[in-house]
Amino acid sequence: MREIDPTTLTQRDNYKLLIGSVIPRPVAIVTTLSEAGVLNIAPFSFFSIVSSDPAMLSIAVQRKNGQAKDTARNLLATNEAVIHILDKENVVAANHTAAQLPPETSELDASGFTTVPSSTVAVPGLKEAKVRFETKLYQHIPIEAGSQADLLLLQVTAYHINEDIYQDGKIDPEGLQAVSRLAGNTYASIGEMFDIKRPDD
């Protein structure tokens, strides 16, 4: 077993070890609005569930040259976002949103996504996603060490779930066809599924 001290590695080398090991990672497609009303769309694989009571999600946004990226800057200004689950049917469109565009330019045209109104936030959602969460900012935790990042805790204010994958209060994973991120340019779909009974069941 090789032991490596992360403090001896560059940011890039730490990044490669983390994204190559913490797999598969769910991918969020996040929409936010700038103060000028420009819709930003961006994918994030530093994304997870935080709590179910209250329903809460998290995204971590790495800063660029010490500056907050559009998603973090917009969220901190408006306190709202819509988070969508990446799936096989929208992965190509989502990949187009990763392009480096200036803040005054929306990724909407490049992606081909279609917007739909939200019910609890001003930020529109993306029609093509089978699952989306309207959210409001609960807490911002700035990470000031190293290259810096913004950890954003987001409380869910509404769920939107495609009827085709919603069964008895649960999500059908085969119908959702969620796509996860591995390392580099590699993604993965849901593979073999198996059950293991928990000791307390």
Automatic annotation (TrEMBL):
Enumerate the UniProt keywords alphabetically: Flavoprotein, FMN
Transmembrane stretches in the record are none
What is its cofactor? FMN
Q: Does the keyword Transferase apply?
A: no
Flavin reductase like domain: from which residue to which, for each copy?
A: 20-173
Q: Which SUPFAM superfamilies did the record assign?
A: FMN-binding split barrel
Question: Under what name is this protein listed?
Answer: Flavin reductase like domain-containing protein
The UniProt entry's sequence similarity note says: Belongs to the flavoredoxin family.
The family database entries (Gene3D superfamilies) matched by this protein are listed as: Electron Transport, Fmn-binding Protein, Chain A
Note the InterPro entries from the entry.
Flavin_Rdtase-like_dom, Split_barrel_FMN-bd
Q: From which source organism is this entry? A: Candidatus Enterococcus testudinis
Q: Which one of the record's GO molecular function terms can you name?
A: oxidoreductase activity, acting on the CH-NH group of donors, NAD or NADP as acceptor
One Pfam assignment = Flavin_Reduct
Task: State whether keyword Flavoprotein applies.
Answer: yes
